Amino acid sequence: MSGIDLATPQAQRLRRPSWRDRRLLVGLLLVLLSTALGGWVVSRADRTVPVYAAQRALVPGEAVSAQDVRRVDVLLGEADERYLSAASDLPPDLHVLRAVGDGELIPLAATGTRDQVRTQVVALQVDTTSASMLEVGSIVDVFVNRPTGGASVGGRPAYGGPEQVLEGATVAALPDASSVLGGVVSQRPVQLVVPVDKVQALIADIDLGSRITLVAAPGAPRQGS
Q1: Does the residue 72 lie in any domain?
Q2: Consecutive H or E run containing 28
Q3: pTM higher than 0.85 for the full model?
Q4: Does residue 100 form part of some domain?
Q5: Are 101 and 139 part of one and the same domain?
């Protein structure tokens, strides 16, 4: 083996990265992009938008004016387009299509024009007990007991069993009944928002002398709640 020179490996020196190194440039670009994206996400999450909230309970069919709403700045994220923007004045001919509670943000889907209203307000008399816990904006189911035309019971007309004729109707107003019958009130006037296609049947029950009872829906606004 003598006389043969073996090659000695040479140690390679590490080169300092330069601005021309493609991998360094790509890494810096990724860092800058992630930083910018993170900042955009944070700023987007912290962005408040002005929307309108109901100043009072709004009932279906009524026109909405500036006195009926107030501006609130809220964090809604991607949901901000679902609510009535307060970045400008209220649109003309704005009406409520479904009930909006006191203080509730006003959904765009709950508003429209007068031509889109499909309800009417019907005045009726109901038992004071069923009306005692109601307030404007209360959601109620309507039951009627129709007179049977048979013999009276204890001097009072006979009625058939109760039948539910409306579900989820809204109380529009509760007129003062303190002067009715000299202060002895057995019934209470109530103005109820009724779908247009149900108005005729309800008026027929009123004219027939049916007993009308309003039952508050679970979770609906009520006096004392």
Answers
A1: yes
A2: helix 22-45
A3: no
A4: yes
A5: no
